[in-house]
Amino acid sequence: MVIFATRLECETSNVSPPAVKVNCEEYHLAALLLMVHSPRSAAYGRTTRSPKGLCRNMHMKLIKQVQELFENSYGTLNHLAGVRHFFSPARINLIGEHIDYCGGLVFPTTVQFGTIIIAQPNGLGTIRVVSINEPGKVEFDPAGALQRSTPGHWGDYVKGVFVEYGKINVDLPGLDVAVGGDIPGGGLSSSASLEVGIAVLIETFTGYSSSDDSFANRQALSWLAQRAENEFVGVNCGIMDQGAIALGKENHAMLMDCSDLSINYCAVELGDYSLLIVNSCKQRRLDESAYNERCEEVALALSILQPVFGIGTLCELPIDLVNDALDCIDDPILCKRVRHVVSEHDRVSQAASRLSNGDVEGFGKLLNASHRSLQHDYEVTGHELDTLIGLSQQQPGVLGARMMGAGFGGCGLVLIRSSNIEQFAKVVGAAYRAEIGYDAEFYPVEIGPGAQEIMSANDE
Ligand code: GLA
Fold first, then answer.
1. CATH 3.30.70.890 residue ranges in the chain?
2. Spatial distance between the Cα atoms of 89 and 251, rounded to a whole number of angstroms
3. Which fold has domain 28-267+447-459?
4. Domain spanning 276-444 has what CATH number?
5. Atom 1 of ligand 1 has which residue's CA nearest to it?
6. 76-112 tens-digit pLDDT
7. I need a labelling partner for 105 at 20 to 30 A (CA). Which of 55, 120, 252, 406 fits?
8. Ligand 1 centre and the CA of 420: distance in Å?
């Protein structure tokens, strides 16, 4: 049993509790469904970027490891040759699981873990990439016709992004690249972290920008990175992960409308409570999972409901019409999928509302309800995650817990009183090992900024 990393230090309100509070900028429940772009763009441009130096200091150990790999693979890092460093975070999702590809609202944030990427022009016209996490070197001509490797190969997440910039005629230089990540387990989107990091790198080296508005540019970058995963890697993921990582903001969660990637930034103030990542350490790969199968099921359900209810996405179906909708569908499996999507979408709005009112207990209950729905209706959990989340929900100081991300293994999220974390890790760690046969891991969450350059030749 291990507790890792830093303690969560959230901005706490000096005004007396609610213990957990989320203040949403310009947030009103009614406005949720009528999101407008401009105020959010302004908020993003104003405060998203944290000072490069801060981000650099947080990741110094990982940076050194990646620098070492770079030098062992390509020779000395050369500031005159224009070496640049980037950090692209992982994301967690507070609530709103498996509904981004149904046009729903989700509630992710970016965290302290992520991917460091170092790149330097090589004058060769080719892209060469090495990783501290995976063996081998990936080498390709960005102007050539690129082929997918074996399913799930890490290099395809990189190649896919180059392919997408090639399609919009961005002139891609030859680069030597080294990457390294410290993202624990599955469910925190290491793949989108890599994709978005590579996209930021390409835009930085080429000077390409799709818009003068920095928020709009990052939206476009997110959609491009998603296309890389959909079309090159072959996973039909939604926009949540790429959007969160490209648009993340320190100490804020993002109430994100996946139908148009508009975002309300919500300052997360946790008082006596913390968010804890629990890693089941059960391996899974998205392309091997039933992820694409779920996407097909909800697309089929939509094709049945669309003509009856006149909806464009499943998340447009109001919760009070869900029983009428289920009456239109014969297949009991499809009924369960629809019930999850519509109820989970409703929980996201409720969660944002409860947090903004300081109703921490109510928020915790929604996390538990979300897990139940993902377990029984969407069926994306599995024995390891159910064991870990079930144990977590029973512990003192825990207000709620649920699986996170695609599921089938990977990580969960626990809302817990900070003073209970140590005891929680001891008890849950021992019980999980006794049931599953190997250790779980525990990481207090720190909410960090989105993907950004952290060091360039000019900083030296
Ligand atoms: C993965 C996908 C996301 C989202 C989540 C589930 O992380 O990449 O688009 O669908 O699963 O919420």
1. 276-444
2. 13
3. Ribosomal Protein S5; domain 2 (3.30.230)
4. 3.30.70.890
5. 406
6. 888 888 999 999 999 999 999 999 999 999 999 999 9
7. 55
8. 30
